[in-house]
Write a structure and sequence with these properties.
This protein has one helix and no strands. The radius of gyration is 14 Å and the shape is rod-shaped. By secondary structure, the protein is an all-alpha fold. This is Type I toxin-antitoxin system Fst family toxin.
Length: 33
Amino acid sequence: MFQEFFKYVIAPIIVGIALKLFSLWLKEKDDNN
């Protein structure tokens, strides 16, 4: 049961952080160009 909680709470947080870092990377890439 804890694994289900972990999967549904931690996974979205990791995805959100990944998207945030990806958007920041795209901004830096655009600035360099």
